[in-house]
Amino acid sequence: MKAIIYEEYGPPEVLQLRNVEAPKPADDDVLIRVRAAEATKADCELRGFRFSVKWFWLPLRIALGITKPRRAILGGYFAGEVAAVGTNVAQFSVGDKLFGTAGLHMGAYGEYVVLPATLAMAEKPRNMTFAQAAAVPLGGLNALHFMRLARLTAGEKILINGAGGSIGAHAVQIARSMGAEVTAVDKAAKEPMLRRLGVDNFVDYQREDFAQAGPQYDVVFDMVPTSSYRACISVLSPGGRYLCGNPRLSVMLRALLTNRFTDKSASFAFAKETREELEALRKMIEDGKIISIVDRELPMDQASKAHRLVETEERCGAIVLLIGT
Ligand SMILES: NC(=O)c1ccc[n+]([C@@H]2O[C@H](COP(=O)([O-])OP(=O)(O)OC[C@H]3O[C@@H](n4cnc5c(N)ncnc54)[C@H](OP(=O)(O)O)[C@@H]3O)[C@@H](O)[C@H]2O)c1
């Protein structure tokens, strides 16, 4: 099969299109013919071994390969068709069209990937192409996890910092569907897209400081690793909730103090990515509450270009690799 592989950590050019042996499913696995895979920030971080959260470095290096990547095929989020199932797999059948996550197994940059049937995979939304569906699980699963954690209610005000990214753009749509008033923070180039998704207010972080507005939000959802903890807490109304998707060690310690000594709360989490959440997303998509935001679809041999676009943020929406073309 054709696959994009990387045999060393480094710049986008370490990604190479090669012919490799197709994997075979064991009893509890599903073999998936991948049609599309999102090129994500996480894929870029794994490829270059450069992570925004520094305390992660050592455990990740041990897990992923000390001198070179242990798993040569990247790709954590995909859409495709079931090509074969193991003897113990009852929930999927050959020919099912799925979208989902490969988790730390990765491998969705190859024409075939073998995954445990227990991973978050669900029927592809009927109203989406494979490429559109592949752009949903990363942003959608993480956004849904955090929006549920926020316990948003209709009429509440939420500020989403980094709203134009994969997770942020899904959080905008989910928060709107929960009836919240959404203020999006990102750079000006992303404002038209975010307005289309229904944001009520927009702050261009390159020209304005959202913290100047003073306390006014019930929830702040923060996806920006470099943002100021003090600024995020300062714009919360009494009883407000701060959710951090990118916790630095200092944020975790300060969150303990905020929770103990103030009427505000701060939490950080790593989304679990469950099948139940993916099913909920599929329903929201088929009900017209969430759309997929694809900037570009690229053939496999342009994987390096895809990574460069993601790393330099020259995109408005997801970059999707069409696997097998
Ligand atoms: N906790 C979890 O479970 C979890 C799971 C997955 C990912 N993450 C982390 O969450 C982060 C976001 O993920 P993502 O996939 O949504 O990333 P992404 O697509 O790169 O989105 C980040 C967005 O933030 C914008 N941004 C950058 N600097 C900003 C600033 N100072 N103020 C406001 N916006 C700013 C970026 O725009 P420009 O750079 O173009 O300005 C981009 O639109 C990543 O760092 C990832 O590692 C956490």
UniProtKB/TrEMBL annotation:
Per its UniProt record, what Pfam families does this chain match?
ADH_N, ADH_zinc_N_2
Q: Which GO terms describe its molecular function?
A: oxidoreductase activity
Provide the Enoyl reductase (ER) domain boundaries.
10-321
Question: From the record, what ranges are coiled-coil?
Answer: none
| Database matches in Gene3D superfamilies | Medium-chain alcohol dehydrogenases, catalytic domain, NAD(P)-binding Rossmann-like Domain
> Would you indicate the residue range of the signal peptide?
none
Checking InterPro entries in the record gives: ADH-like_N, ER, GroES-like_sf, NAD(P)-bd_dom_sf, YIM1/Zinc_Alcohol_DH_Fams
Return the protein name: NAD(P)-dependent alcohol dehydrogenase
Q: Which organism is it from?
A: Hoeflea prorocentri
